[in-house]
Amino acid sequence: MAHSLSRQDPIVFIGLTALLLQGLPAADVPADLEVQAGSAGRAGLVRPPKLYRDGTERMQVYLRHLESAGQEFTGSLPVLPGLRRRWTRRPAPYEAEQVIVRLSEGTDVGTVLTAPLHHALSDVLIREPLLVSSTPADAVKRRHGAWANTFPDLVEPLITTQADRRRLDAAWSFADGRAESPGESLSRAAVHELGFIVPEPQKDLYDGDRWIARVDHWWDQIGLAGEFDGKTKYSSALRKPGDSWQDVLVREKEREDAIRRTGAGVLRWMWSDVRNLQRFEHLLVRHGVPRRTG
Q1: Residue 240 pLDDT
Q2: Same domain, 187 and 119
Q3: At what angle do helices 117-127 and 130-143 cross, to 10 degrees?
Q4: What does the alpha-carbon distance between residue 51 and residue 49 come to, in Å, rounded to a whole number?
């Protein structure tokens, strides 16, 4: 919002920045804002401005701000993003969309211009690796199923090369609306990138006719349930009114025991595991997840 207001000419946000502004998730907050460059000569990365003379002054200003707002220091300072201007000559021009910038606690702070959803999403699917593109793509299929069915037709005029078509088709085909969180989307993408068979998302498990649980991931080939343990799962999804942390953990342990009694195995991982591909690969190998063939 600050960058948009600081420029006399209209700023149009594109790519992953546009998707985030339109309310779609990302596994990680990108380091740079992406905007449409006015020309090819204007394209490039602009480093963020230095607001303070040194780190000590920055810390003092930030601590005074927190004190005046009645907040505590969490151990990290806010980081200004860089700015990446990209020149994207597309065969089909578009009219930028106005999007409300809304803080996580609900406050509206103004409006900015972004590329339309199908432009921004196709841009991300073509340019970004699966570890980046899968999270917003999964969310689009989950939240906007009817619109997602029209997406291939909407982007048809935007495809300029066969290589772009192959990349977009592959990334869009991989997207699955059954993934319910960024962590689950990132996990599926990491499994694929590491060369393993991708699990089925959100699988219901039964003991005979009795429903046991719905697991985040399921490898039917080896009877293995995969559970991504993000903070949200324990802070909201599994926590009932009046629950203590002990209640949540005991209930989750009982759920896992019920899954294991069906003969299934259980593999659990966290953000720190899936963000370290070598560590994640070791987990998958240790639990016998099969590699893809061909």
Answers
A1: 62
A2: no
A3: 150
A4: 6
